[in-house]
Amino acid sequence: MNDTEPSIGNWTDQTFFDNLSTTETPYQDYEFRFETYLVPLIFGIIFIVGVLGNGTLVVVFLRHRAMRNVPNTYILSLALADLLVIITTVPFVSIVYTLDSWPWGESMCMVSEFVKDVSIGVSVFTLTALSSDRFFAIVDPLRKFHAHGGGKRATYMTITTAIVIWILAIICGIPALAGSKIKHIVVNSRVSFEVCYPFPEEWGPEYAKGMVLFRFLVYYAVPLILIGIFYIMIAIHLVFTSRVPGEIQGAMRQVIARKKVAVTVLAFVVIFGICFFPHHLFMLWFYYNPNSNEDYNTFWHVLRIIGFCLSFANSCANPILLYCVSGAFRKHFNRYLLCKGSSSSRRRHADNLAYRDTSLTSTISRKYPSKRLGNRSCRIQETTITIQIGGTGMNGMADKEHLNRI
Question: Cα(318)–Cα(316) distance, rounded to whole angstroms?
């Protein structure tokens, strides 16, 4: 399956085989390669963790109204994209370093490459949108409130943004759907195989180089630069601003909460950057180095495998990160995956999270008894308490935006 070995000619040409010189391209059979056994194991872990983690995120969002808000809508979109690529692509590409030839046919080749590009596009575009959302929530929350209009309008705008992101990612993935073909590779007189290849040879070498550069810019470099600009401005604002407009009480608590959430979103971005850097580095080197076939050695082979595994491992990383940093999501993960906590203890824990957890948004309704004068009976007054991912707290204009969503 290693398509980096040079293609020597038409593998069906027996005359070519008969006339081959005694000096042939060296080739190590797959059963003697370490990655043959390691890569499927890694992909098995990615599949199990990814399905359970992202599946739980989707269930939490659908079953708990308190988790439905602007930031968590973006997180749901990330989870759906990761779940899509894990279910439709991971089981099929896990054999790339195990079998000599692609066994699933050309249709599955096209689908797997297309879904992979769509998932990457949704992930990086959503992370950019999340960073933009955090920028306005921290730097200018009043402007964000007036721009969104608060309440259902903010929710609709977020859903619309998520839909536009998916449409854009699908458009960017069309070349992979149209161009992915089965490529025949000839190594020497005794070894030839077929690979799933996204750059048709009949479209010319410039197409492959152009698509590699396009994917690097659109799926990696440009979004990370924009995200970096947002976070530089956030950092400058937090350094030089001690109070946020609209806050009356608990300013320091709210600023700390915003910092914590900004770091959480930044962690998503850093993980994405780390996971896809080796892949893009190898692709740029291989397609822009005219001597890549001759220079291909153990270092580049190992880097290629690492990039291949990390690019798919990113699909199961976000739920792990959320479990580590978010008490709200950790509670739900423990409930659905580990069956921890009784209903009463979960209720008390949810009440405590209303005051302590600001790493993710959760909206929790609590009931307070108030005695009516002249009457022994008690009236229950329902009050909604909102914890926002941006940590705007319970005061100021930004809180009204979330209160109106309930």
Answer: 6
Residue 319 in contact with residue 240, Cβ under 8 Å? no
Q: Around 142, how many Cα atoms within 13 Å sit in the side-chain half-sphere?
A: 6
Residues ≥6 apart with Cβ < 8 Å to 72: 61, 360, 361, 389
- CA dihedral sign, ordered 197, 203, 209, 213: negative
Task: Give the span between the Cα atoms of 173 and 165, in whole angstroms.
Answer: 12
How far apart are the C-alpha atoms of 279 and 286, rounded to whole Å? 11
Neighbouring CB atoms inside 10 A of 369's CB total 8
Instruction: Compute CA distances 64 → 57, 207, 240, 328, whole Å.
Output: 11, 47, 38, 11
DSSP labels for 47-84? HHHHHHHHHHHHHHHHH-GGG-SHHHHHHHHHHHHHHH
DSSP string, 159-217: HHHHHHHHHHHHHHHHHHHHH-EEEEEE-SSS-EEEEEESS-GGG-HHHHHHHHHHHHI
The tally of CA atoms less than 13 A away on the side-chain side of residue 74 is: 24
Pairing of strands 378-387, 181-186: unpaired
Q: Alpha-carbon distance 50 to 86, whole Å?
A: 7
Measured between alpha carbons, how far is 226 from 133 in angstroms, rounded to an integer? Answer: 13
Please name every residue paired with 192 in a beta bridge, in sequence order, or none if there are none: 186
Tens of pLDDT along the chain (406 residues)?
444 443 333 333 433 333 334 345 566 777 888 899 999 999 999 999 999 999 999 998 888 887 777 778 888 999 999 999 999 999 999 999 888 889 999 999 999 999 999 999 999 999 999 999 888 878 876 655 545 555 677 778 889 999 999 999 999 999 999 999 999 888 777 788 899 999 998 999 899 999 999 999 999 999 999 999 999 998 888 777 655 454 445 556 666 666 776 787 889 999 999 999 999 999 999 999 999 988 999 999 999 999 999 999 999 999 999 888 888 788 888 888 877 754 445 545 544 443 344 345 444 434 444 444 344 433 333 333 233 333 333 333 333 333 233 2
Please say whether the beta carbons of 211 and 31 come within 8 A. no
Report how far residue 26's alpha carbon sits from residue 67's, in angstroms, rounded to the nearest whole number.
Answer: 56
7 closest CA partner among 167, 134, 252, 195: 195
Residue 298 in tokens: 């153990």
